[in-house]
Amino acid sequence: MGPVDHLFSICTAIVTLPLLAFALIMIFAWKKPKVALAISLVCSTIPLILAWYLFLTVRDVSLAKPIVTQVEWLVSSDGFRIPFGFLIDPVSLLMLVIVATIAWLIQIYSIGYMEGDPGFGRYYADLSLFGMAMLSLVSANGLLQLFISWELVGLASYLLIGFWYEKFSASEAGKKAFVVTRFGDIGFFMGLAFLTIYFGTLDITAVNLAGLKHTMPQWLLTTTSLLIFCGVAGKSAQFPIHVWLPDAMEGPTPVSALLHSATMVAAGVYLITRLFPFFAASPTTCSVILAISTITLLLSSTIGMVARDIKQVWAYSTISQLGFMAMGLAAAGLVGGNLFAGYYHLTTHAAFKALLFLCAGVFIHHFGTNDFFVMSKEGGRYLKIPMVTVTIGALALAGIFPFSGFFSKEAVMGVLWSLPSKIWVTLGLFGAFLTAYYTFRVIFVLLFPRPDDHKAWEEYYEVPATAHSHGPAHSHGHGPHGDFSHDDAHAHTGSAPGHQHDEAHSPHGHGDEHHGVPWVMSFPLIVLAGFTLVLGFLQGRLEGFLLGESHPHELNYTLLILAVGAALLGIGMAWRDWGAKSATWQGFIRNFPSLENFFIQKWYMDHFWRWFLDTVIYGLFSKWFTYNDRRVVDGGVDAVSFSCIGGGRLLSLLQTAFLQYNLLFMVLVLAGLGIYLLMGL
Amino acid sequence: MTEHMASFPVLSCMLLAPVVGLFILLFLKEEQGFLVRMVSLVSAGISFALSIYTFVGYDKQLGGLQFVEKYPWVKAFGITYFVGVEGMNAPLLLLTGIVIFTGVLTMWELKERVREYFIFQLALVTGVFGVFMSYDMFFFFLFYEIAVVPMYILILIWGSTRKIYAAMKLTLYLMAGSGLIIPGILMLYSSSGLFTFDMLQLHGVAFAPWIQKIAFVFMYLGFGVLAGVWPFHTWSPVGHVAAPTAVSMLHAGVLMKLGSFAILRVAMYLCPEGFQYWAQFMGLLAAVGIVYGVFVGLAQTDLKYVIGYSSVSHMGIVGLGLATGTVDGLNGAVFQMFAHGVMTALFFSAVGFIYDRTHTRDILELGGMSKIMPVASAFFITAALCGAGVPGMASFWAELLVLVSAVKVFPVRGLFAIASLVIGALFALRVVQNTFFNDPNPKFAHFEDVSPFLGLPRMILIGFMIFFGLFPQVMVGLIKTSIVPFIQGM
Amino acid sequence: MLIFNQLETYLYLAVILFAIGLYGVLSRRNLIAVLISVELMLNAASINFMAFNRFLAPHPAVGQVITLFIMAVAAAEAAIALSIIMAVYRKLKSINVEQATELRG
What we know:
The complex is a heterotrimer of chains A (681), B (490) and C (105). Chain A contains 26 helices and two strands. Chain A is an all-alpha fold and 681 residues long. A two-stranded antiparallel sheet of chain A has the order 1-2. In chain A, a hairpin with a 2-residue loop joins strand 1 and strand 2. Chain C is an all-alpha fold and 105 residues long. Chain C has helices at 7-27, 31-55, 61-92. Chains in contact: A-B, A-C. The interface between A and B is large, with 51 and 61 residues. Chain C: It is a multi-pass membrane protein. Chain C: Its EC number is 7.1.1.-.
């Protein structure tokens, strides 16, 4: 009858096809880019179609009545059964299409971006691995399957961040990402262990029901939810373990777009959404989440204000927006609201943040640098499609009508407004101001480059030496041409090998703008921009889809004005500092130099963690344990053997080799025996 | 336990195939290098095939001991040749088969004294197979000793770093462990009143609690030396570093499991009250070993030392699972024995390939190997990820089972063990980064990548690891059939 | 009764001889002197046997046979001992027992 009968097979297909792609490519095709691409595209298009099919046709599900299909995966004892299965309800359906769509668009985009890279096959294999893990994560029914997918997503992230592994910074960043998220994940694991032992099952529906009906003891609820939040904090880069995400920008930009803005980092927030009734049942946890996410929102916005690398700005923006989403969910939990606001912002954010990253990718690919000041000088504004779409994305991020960001930010602010204390919504508004400011700092710098003799260039023109220029992916033209009829601006000259990598310095006469960007790269930009424009107006329908009914909102005009005001204020400040003709290109923060330095040093968080690692982990524990092993434990063993040898040497001193002592000893023993026998008997 | 006699002596064939191979090798000459290797490979292959057969052919519905062969040996002392297969030892027999087969393939490039090497290696493997399949304490111990003694020669002649010291230390330390085991065994033998070494019969005897406590601790510490129980583990890193590649694979992969398997099969089986008494202590030592191993591994610069300390940590997980005394914990412990065995064999195999070419294992000297030999590097990296506990590979499930049941029974120790997962990830990735990523060392730039033939053993190991990672029920379903009656019988 | 008709006399004699021989074996430094002392001890044992034979044993020949045995054994042993002493002398150029300590621990 419809999709419901074959739900299990469809979902299994969605999840396992990318896994198949990963396996096939890694075993057979990792040196054959075209084959790898074909396998990967097939195994991501089919899930895309299936996900949309499910999204559009599965009816009769709601949060209260999900469809659950599963099989037994591991049965160790009656108390320990791990199922493998899927939970289909509006939340997971929506996330499935988000993930599938954006992953597919990224794969298309990467055709152009990663062209010519020697690791092309490996790249698509890793993307497929990620796809499988993420799709399994969002549709999992058991928390353990979710945890497994969570870890696998982290693995894919590690492989992709450290993709250009010859670069020390890249391999370092990959390791950092894995270890820091693992640090959060041990909390997650502990939470799952407690749930298994004291609650008996890891079934999401059961856990949510227990939260809803308060059938779980409160201590268990609070402890477990806090522990699970540790995992969320790691994956969604919340304070204080957010430090891995900016470094993760070492990976190729499409990876940053897919993993580290739209989907993987959203997995943490998605988990809160998935377990919303469970989290909402514990006010303590919600307060903690609220506090941490607010700190995250503000902290990362301030760092984004002073960054020069466009990917870093977007990365810090992602961190702060994730905080914003979590604020929405936590606040809703505290006031008895619903998950819509935070989740809606997740949806819109996925679209416009991926868009922002992909646009950045176009600029990076074109100019060979991540520094947007240099891009500006080299004529970034003349790449039409990216410039337009990046502005659309920026407007959405800043929360300007009619873009999707406006609607979702309003929704979250509305939830914050309904909290008893107005401090939260104030901080949220401040965050909105900062967001608009740093976003438009980038846009205005790109749009309005200063003339060459402007004194701002004295400061801004040192191009940081390799910084984040991504090695070989910058197509040297050795890649397979011909298949993709792209006219990359520089390949236009006839694809001669040995054509320079630093055409960044060639003047911006690239001819027609529509030759500036290959269509495989501009197509996703246009699609995402389309989503950004449209999603805002679908708010009502989405709410109905997710919650079962749409709540008519009375508009809170005060809040509306405040929010729009904050955004416009931010844009205005940015215009004053960066856009206007008289702008000095020095942020207003320059007036507080120590504060500015504090932000540039990323609030010294990296220093703190580095210190923790070096002094505490390596210096204290590791060194002490090693010393203990070598000297104390092993020393004990060696001491045993030395004492045996020494004892033997001591005893051998008894061997005097004097003939007569031996004889004397013999005689004494005999005499003793004789006396004993003669007397004692 | 019900015993189902074997229609065809599968287990004896498995046990004797290496012996036959050994005898044939005695008549060959050193110059017939290819023939020597083929004979070893064929005898290892026969055992491997038979171990797969017993693993797959074990009837889970029937349960009990299957493929049993029982012949009285020395009636005066009550010694019988009693071998059988059940859920607990089938995975370990399979593990031995896998590791010896891939080990022979890994040592294909050995150049000096090849014939003698394979003779000793086959002798060692005979001992290992014998331990896993024996249900008579005398033969159990006999095979145990056969498994330990050839190590000395193998490390002494074909080893590398500090081989004399390592060979001596390893052998003497393991002998000291045996010195603790024998009193335990004999204590049980003499106080049972039955004058038999048959474990199943002894299980039925209710020993006095004081006898159980003393016998258990003797056997636990004695077997624990081989199992790498902290603090009796220091022979292991030194020994693994010095040993040649396949010997390390066998030793860390299989021999250390002999120790923990023996704790399970002999000590816990025959002295349940002794076990209850000492369980907290066991859990403590195991938890310390887990945390300790990862921290010390963090400071190492020799690749094999890193793997050695990782083994100490993972064997701690086995010990922790055993100490919980629950179905899940024991399931996890046996699964971890298998999973870790495969993983460690893969580790050493991968390192061996690199060492054979670069003659260094210092991670500060090596670098960028992924660029030079990507496939060989991928083997090590896969093993490292497995060691870090990434799902999709067998040891994830094993650790999951053990850690969750550990939290139930020993909350504090269990939580510390979970916390060590992050340090485990750190040291695994640190090694990977230093050895395989970053700039290649120009000294090694000209080496070729692994050929398909040499890649075969590593692929086999990865295949098993991933297969049981994706379908853990195949393994756990089998292990369960023997653990559940085991726990009930306690 | 004449003391010469009492057993104790000869036993005392044997004991004194044995003690002198024992003292000599244990304290003389010259290997030949040790050998002589050993002969003394053997003779003391013979006297002991003869004494018991004369006063207690039923058959008169037993003690005498044993004494002859002792003498034969003593002769053989002296031969061997002297050849060992010769070998020691060749090695150490001395027959002082304090020099023969190579088996020292």
